[in-house]
């Protein structure tokens, strides 16, 4: 018997609400996904904030790099109306606000936290994130992921028992070797590459999750193969298809 494939809500439920905002996380929680995924950057004055891009341009009414803006500047931006006019007034959450939100929600699933150090260097951000999480004494589990191998190594050194995943486009032999060495525990591979490699759909593929799976045919294939998890923008669809294929017979 295989385990159920985990459903991970990518940047909250970004198909229905502005990504990486509290309304998007709240919308995702209504479906009780196995994990919430989100991204962390740092402002010019040292505050951790929840946003995907290095720049605020795509998801707010502002322009510029997060690293060049103060928290006050970040908080003055509207991060909702680009998605939906009625969402005007939604702001980029600080990491503190996000963690406090999880507490108010009695969150008990897993937080998939991406350390966004793949394009901008934020020296010391790994320790700041781990310290902040520890300060909240979460009841839930945290899984750290990054495209930046160095960030993963730092997390492993700071917290040897942490759950860590490498974000990759495709799991090369070096990626498997690093996993075997214990640098990380899981491999999170791009579905655009993964779906062209049928051999990866070995059952059970206990260490592999894939992003970003929004297509129903891909979902069906993955749920049938029993991959560890899918990271998706389409939380409702994934929940429905998983129930159809994996039902309640799996743990
Ligand atoms: O969780 C996987 C996925 O979030 C990685 O890509 O660019 O959406 O952060 P990205
Ligand atoms: Ca991410």
Strand order of the largest sheet: 1-2-4-5-6-7-8-9
Work out the number of β strands.
9
* Amount of helix: 25-40%
The secondary structure category is alpha/beta
- Rounded average pLDDT: 94
The sequence of SSEs as H and E is EHEEHHEHEHEHEHEHEH
Please identify, by name, the CATH architecture.
Alpha-Beta Barrel
> What is the makeup of the main sheet?
8 strands, parallel, barrel
Distance between the termini: 8 Å
Q: From the alpha-carbon coordinates, what is the Rg to the nearest angstrom?
A: 18 Å
Q: In percent terms, what proportion of residues is strand?
A: 15-25%
CATH class: Alpha Beta
Tell me the CATH topology. TIM Barrel
CATH homology-level superfamily? Phosphatidylinositol (PI) phosphodiesterase
User: How many distinct helices?
Assistant: 9
Shape: globular
Structure report:
- It is built from 9 helices and 9 strands.
- Strands 1-2-4-5-6-7-8-9 form an 8-stranded parallel β-barrel, surrounded by 6 helices.
- Strand 6, helix 6 and strand 7 form a beta-alpha-beta unit.
- Helix 8 packs across helix 9.
- It is globular, with a radius of gyration of 18 Å.
- The protein starts with 5 loop residues before the first strand and ends in a 5-residue tail after the last helix.
- Bound molecules: SN-glycerol-3-phosphate and calcium ion.
- The site of SN-glycerol-3-phosphate has 10 residues, from strand 2.
């Amino acid at each position: 018997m295989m385990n159920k494939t985990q459903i991970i809500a990518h940047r909250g439920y970004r198909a229905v609400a502005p990504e990486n905002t509290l309304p998007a996380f709240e919308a995702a929680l209504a479906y009780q996904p196995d994990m919430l995924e989100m991204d962390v950057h740092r402002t010019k004055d040292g505050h951790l904030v929840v946003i995907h891009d290095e720049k605020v341009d795509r998801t707010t009414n502002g322009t510029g790099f997060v690293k060049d803006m103060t928290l006050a500047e970040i908080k003055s931006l509207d991060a909702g109306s680009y998605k939906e006019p009625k969402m005007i007034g939604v702001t980029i959450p600080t990491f503190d606000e996000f963690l406090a939100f999880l507490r108010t929600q009695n969150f008990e699933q897993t937080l998939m936290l991406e350390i966004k150090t793949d394009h901008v260097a934020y020296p010391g951000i790994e320790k700041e994130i781990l310290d902040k999480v520890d300060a909240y004494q979460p009841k839930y589990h945290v899984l750290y992921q990054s495209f930046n191998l160095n960030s993963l190594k730092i997390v492993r050194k700071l917290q040897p028992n942490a759950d860590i995943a490498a974000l990759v486009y495709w799991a090369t032999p070096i990626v498997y070797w690093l996993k075997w060495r214990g640098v990380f525990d899981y491999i999170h591979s791009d579905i655009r590459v993964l779906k062209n490699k049928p051999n990866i759909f070995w059952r059970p593929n206990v260490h592999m999750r894939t992003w970003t799976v929004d297509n129903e045919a891909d979902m069906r294939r993955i749920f049938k193969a029993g991959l560890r998890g899918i990271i998706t923008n389409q939380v409702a669809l994934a929940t429905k298809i998983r129930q159809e294929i994996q039902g309640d017979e799996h743990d």
